[in-house]
Amino acid sequence: MSKLKEFSNFLKNVDLDSYRVKYRPIKIVEMDLPSEIQALKLIYKTYWEKKDFMSFDDFYKKYEDELNEKLENFRKKIQMCEQCFYLGLPARIYRTWASIITQIHAGYIAESVFGDGSVDMSEKLDHAGIDFLVNYNGYILNYQVKKETESREVRKEKKHKNENKGESINIFYKVPQSKIFEDPKTKKGEFRKPYLDFINNKNLERYNNGFIVFTKEQFENKKNEIDNKIN
Predict the structure, then answer these.
(1) What is the pLDDT of residue 176?
(2) What is the span of the domain harbouring residue 67?
(3) Which of 68, 91, 123, 220 could bond 23 through an S-S bridge, CB–CB 3.0 to 4.6 Å?
């Protein structure tokens, strides 16, 4: 099984509804986290470098085990009670995790289009404002995912200056409210405009559990454009 198919199956089996019920109401640890306890590096290492597609619960345990001492030092520094901190931290990390694994899926999709080894992503690139980098026949493409959502669960858009060489490309990731899919038609039996707008967008698709992911079409046009220049 290809890593793209394996990762897609992994996303399809995430119980988003239960996580949302569990974590959406919890907004305790919302301050900026110092770099040494941010989850980005471990997320990229786990799901992109090692291709270990573990559940969020397993990932959070790994995160907490690896950074236990640093987490405690930070908690004491901000003088937050232990119960409050360790109640709010999983919710905070989950929101980052859910956002980044969809970006990583986009990287696997891009790699399936541009070729094995053509995509790079890392904490360093993320901090430079690049969600993933494509190197295809000497063309450097710096992709940034622009997230549009009515929910606060998706991370804020990165504002870092991109000093990397190559072409910067923004791709748009829209997260419609779930009720649009639960009740797509009006009382007259006509499909609602937000529903039609989404299903007519060939760059995105929605899994049954609610995950929105990019399709190959998002990247195929750019690949064809480069191929035409080369040929």
Answers:
(1) 85
(2) 3-230
(3) 91
